[in-house]
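Predict the assembly for these two chains.
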Amino acid sequence: MKEAQWREFGLTDQEYEMIVRLLEREPNDVELGMFSVMWSEHCSYKNSKNVLRNFPTSGPQILQGPGENAGIIDIGDGQAAVFKIESHNHPSAIEPYQGAATGVGGIIRDIFTMGARPIALLDSLRFGSLSKSKKSRFLFNGVVAGIAGYGNCIGIPTVGGEVYFHPSYEDNCLVNVMCIGLIEQKDIAKGTAAGPGNPVMVVGARTGRDGIHGATFASEELSEASEEKRPAVQVGDPFMEKLLLEACLELIKTGYVVGMQDMGAAGLTSSSCEMASRAGTGIEMDIARIPRRETGMTPYEIMLSESQERMLVVAKKGKENEVKAIFEKWGLEAVVVGQVTDDGFMTLLDGDKIIARIPAKALTEECPMYEPEATEPAYLAKAQQHDLSTLPEIEDCGQTLLALLSTPTIASKEWVFRQYDYMVGINTIVAPGSADAAVLRIKGTKKGLACTTDCNSRYVYLDPYRGGQIAVAEAARNLICTGAKPLAVTDCLNFGNPEKPEIFWQFREAVKGMSEACNILDTPVTGGNVSFYNETKGEAVFPTPVVGMVGLIDDIAKTVTMDFKNEDDIIILLGQNKDELGGSVFLSSIHGLEAGKPPEIDLQKEKLLHLTTLNLIDRGLLSSAHDCAEGGLAVAISECCISGRIGAEILLTEGIKAASLLFGESQSRIIVSTPKEKVDQVLNILSNAGLPYKVLGNVGGKELNITGTGWKIRLEVAVMEDKYREAISCLMNS
Amino acid sequence: MRFGVVVFPGSNCDADCFHVVDKVLEQPAEYLWHGQSEMKDIDCLILPGGFSYGDYLRTGAIARFSALMDSIREFGEKGGLILGICNGFQVLTEMGLLPGALIRNPSLQFQCHDTYLCVERNDTPFTCLYTKKQIVRVPIAHGEGSYVADRETLEKLEEKGQIVFRYCDEHGAATVAANPNGSQNNIAGIINEKGNIMGMMPHPERCAEDILGNADGLFVFKSLVKWWQEGGN
């Protein structure tokens, strides 16, 4: 074989030698193509698997941990929630609309493959500077439109997520999409090809030439030449997926399905060999029988196509016609292309001719695993030790607060979520922007699901271990603020090139931090996605391990939102203000500094905060609850005022300098408000729990007044609201 | 009162409408598949929101050729009650059962948010439980909801009082600022001359339960039941 070929496909010389050993011969073109996609980082996790073993993955609430198409958790009454997050970064950086749209399509398929009806989508997005970069505005606009175009059409509400802006994402934006589905536990389907003799069927859209080598493309750095890889970006058809979704759910109800899997990255190759590998079987398929929408496609192209909206179904023998009838009703094709075998081989035929024959496990389990070298990056010590004591005093705290409220990362994301249908399905109890997490009711019960995504990547950049801990803690805190008990995590780990020791160190440390927090907060990881090679021209994005979390509310009538509601309600801070400024948005956007140590976190205290807050909510004592996050105490209080369109009177007496007190991002803090007559009861519970707290003031009027030692903020809520709501649309319409 | 909810392959608010009829109104309901050609014993048809056949072409343009359409037309011509919501409204204009058309929002974006509507008529089967000029809050969720018609048609609609809902601000003024999608005359919903077919872009089924924070839309459905129970006058 020509030497250049395997290298072109992203395989090393050693890996090629391994393939020859596994096959006991040289691979042909088709086989080499299959190995190259299956052994790409995207499909094999060959660089990350050893580190991912740190994650806790089991618990009484976990019905399905990592290894399947999605994780599953028990939510009582024989019901379960199915959820997963996945990245579509590189396609979105090259073709934002289709890249994001097919990211949505892919994650939805992962959910209904398990037999669950998808009920909600969330998106965690990151772009370069909105004010300074036209390209960032172009990518942002296209990605949001792509998510809207797909999600709105298929009719799954996009209920939440997050959007951050930072120059490190300028060319390599991050698009992580999470989907949640609902299922009766008895209906859970899995991706296995069990039972030799059972028919293997391709259902849904026809196979075309789009997206060939998408998985390989995802496993290399972006460069100027990446533009030429636009053909590796697939094109989405949400209507087709809607048909596929309804047909698959109808099919699963019949009991004729043995196993089912989405054809995502690496298409037919990955779905077939993963299903066979999980069941310990083989699959024999005739390429000639696969429905195509183009003529003259080679077996290589058919096996590597990433055409969207296709599934591989292993049905019960003798039920082929019943399966076909269901798909025909929805105007779709279902074609028998082969059968399950007992020899453990992936055997591909083109008519009578064998064109590839590989042990299924050679493509999956036999992939070499690496433990890349890890070195602490040089920037870290310098950034952490930056002397923050020399910063000038703030001249006008009110103006600084207004400036932060109109910083795109903090400002209202209304421009985004108004483009998403967040209501279809009529389950959305808490609309985007009104609480720290989205809340969906489960029809026919009193229960609700709360969900969020979270990661402050600046913290991770400045201290990957602590940043990882905080990402998990903050996601959990978001759920707590609505009254939900956090149950489990799905994560999307976006990093640079793992072959660079500094990047791998960031990755390893972040995962360690996340694992510790998941352990202490009892939120095991059920799966997710690793996205490496998020680099352009050698520069990596901020390390961004996004945490997607799902929690359960026992009684949705008790759901709490963040807006201040009633005149004279008392405002209480749960937790403690500290003299910390490191890693804050204040430093970054006011002083242009990415420096300092991120705020400290004590996970035991965090847990106490969670349990105590849930107790207060359960007793119906709170009018509102809001997590203190980016922008610190002052921004959090402003958000409570803005969303409630009501003012507040606050007195801060701590002997901490204004910058840290107002805009520092100390962890484990929640701002709550409570009716006057319930204050004593609240304070009693807080004292008994041993949780530090501080009565800050009261709700009321049309202004936010914050008085400190030697400074004062006095702003009309309407003025703050204007800055907060208009910031992003102003930048996008300019 | 028996409701039929039409299901095109790309409908996505069919289950929501069904839920409101079945669980909130507690009236019998059935789904009507687009491929069937007959329907029986239906007292009110709902054409729900969604993307009927993907709507990559003009919204609703393909739906009007589906097998069920002849019976829907016949049902409407005989005076049967038909409510088209969002995509359903678009389909009704494509079928010619309602005048005008719905074109792309001037923002060129899909828009999903609450709007205020002024109830212009409360003597219709769809609105008899509202008061005249009542201001209600009902969300929109569409990319193509800008109502247009030629001048003659608009004048006729105004003259004959066929405009049932108009976008307005929270005080009831039909201003330009309160018009989310550039609809002519702030039109959010219209009725045919005979008074048995109504189309509206906002989604009343999305605000028909207190747990969703708003039940203003429920009265569209309750009005239908009241109208029918009182013999249709």
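Chain A touches chain B through 33 residues (CB under 8 Å). Residues 134-154 of chain A form the longest helix (21 residues).
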